Amino acid sequence: MMIVRYVIGEIRNLEYYLKVYVTFESNAGNYFFGIITGIVYHHFNSKGKKLESIKNFNAMFLLAVAFFIKMNVLTVCLPRDHLAEPSLLLALYGSLLKASWGILACFLMFYLTFRPRNLFASFLQHPVMLVLSKLSYSSYVVQYTVVYAIYRNVTTPLMSNAFTTILFTSAVVFITLFVGFLLHVCIEVPVMTLCKPLLAPQRTNFPVSPTEEHLIENKAKTDIKDLSK
């Protein structure tokens, strides 16, 4: 965690991060829409609902597509040089642009998931994909730490050529995947195993009275007689 703090501190001092990334490319909003999508998906899945249960879903989906296209087309109107003073209009537009990505992804996931005979949903729900998604998230969490650790340990000048780029890229990818795997196996899996019994819904077994048991037996006998006829 100490390394992550230094990573964030250095990145926030970069001119590109302050002028471009914070305004248009940070993806914190997409996490919010992802959480909303997951909650709605589990609600629909548990209730057995379909897209037909949502009124005017197709119209809302088309509006999300139009909003996404409009926000991205308006990027051509941005000034070439960023304003020296903070701009409220630019900040508002940047927030709407980031939200358009999350909104479109939300509606697209609903459309692809709840379609009948959907191969995309079957592919994402495959056990292999579930494991790979957890591993990829663990790798995403540690990527900045790995990049910073490699960067801090380089003390000699480097030649800017294709070999150096390939070497450092390969090192970052390999170490990131390895550390992400350790994070998943050593932390995520044990925590999930311990918390699963606590988060699972408790089932209460009520005792069956003699009267109810007698009624159940009579119902079963009646069903057998009907089938024999």
TrEMBL record:
What the entry lists under InterPro entries is as follows: O2_lipid_transport_reg (IPR052728)
Residue spans crossing the bilayer: 28-44, 56-76, 88-114, 135-151, 163-187
What keywords were assigned to this record?
A: Membrane, Transmembrane, Transmembrane helix
Q: What is this protein called?
A: Uncharacterized protein
Taxonomic path: Eukaryota, Metazoa, Ecdysozoa, Arthropoda, Hexapoda
